Amino acid sequence: MKIGISNDHAAIDLKYAIINHLEAKGYEVVNYGTDSTESYDYPIAGKRIGEAVRDKEVDCGIAICGTGIGISLAANKVKGIRAACVSEPVSAYLTKLHNDANIICFGARIVGEEVAKAIVDAWLDTPFDGGERHVRRVKMIMDIEK
User: Fold this and answer.
1) Of 85, 28, 92, 89, nearest to 59 (Cα)?
2) Could you give the CA distance from residue 46 to residue 55 in angstroms, rounded to a whole number?
3) Active-site residue identified among 9, 60, 65, 105
4) Numbers of helices and strands, H then E, in the chain
5) Residue 98 is among the residues annotated as catalytic for this protein
6) Half-sphere exposure of residue 10, counting CA atoms within 13 Å on the CB side?
7) Inter-residue contact 29 to 71 (CB < 8 Å)
8) What is the model's pLDDT at position 134?
């Protein structure tokens, strides 16, 4: 599986911790974020990962900014994206199970490295439920874009 990751200037260290964690598990990771501590606008980072997932350059995406909120808002503006901002593994699990989120977002100033790894693992290890009610609801979400 190929996973995209994007970040702003607040999340460089956490991004590399997640990249190392994923690569150790055998995932291919593509870096769409900044590696500079100079101010980098999270809307750019969110749009980049959203477009990469939409265009199927990667199978799914991880987006990290200071809080996870701004980057998730930006990614969700890209048609076809369901980016969820979470701060713990249970929400990561449920957003994949029920919402089939294709991008997971969190904040480098909100969660520590071990919690971030647990969030990513819970999200990646969980399949979409695929049940009628969840498929219907995801379709309803996607229909809003039309």
Assistant:
1) 28
2) 14
3) 65
4) 6, 5
5) yes
6) 19
7) no
8) 96
